[in-house]
Amino acid sequence: MSLTEDKVKAYKDGIHDFGQALPDVAEAYHEFTGKALAAGELDAKTKQLIALGISLFNNNEICTFYHTGEARSKGASDAEIRETVAAAAAVSSGHILSQGVTRVQKAIADHG
């Protein structure tokens, strides 16, 4: 098993144990995520690519591995996965820039 597979398995094992302790919470979480990531107006592949981008932005290693695999299982190509990485990078750097030109500029002006 690869490092990626080991980490995803550890997460799934942990969720299983969590579900044993708090079954209603675990069931509600799985129902919610299952419905939210199921095909609707957006297809399931697109939703997994979105989840991947969010996972990258949040620096969540396990979810990055998991959603990369899920996107691939839903038919995402390597090129689509890489474009998702590029889009997430652009949005995350935009987040920093937007704060820089608003909050930081205001702080500079306020403390002139």
UniProtKB/TrEMBL annotation:
Coiled coil: none
Gene3D superfamilies named in the record: AhpD-like
The protein's name in its UniProt record: AhpD family alkylhydroperoxidase
Pfam families: CMD
Organism the protein comes from: Paenibacillus shirakamiensis
SUPFAM superfamilies (alphabetical): AhpD-like
Occurrences of domain Carboxymuconolactone decarboxylase-like (ranges): 23-92
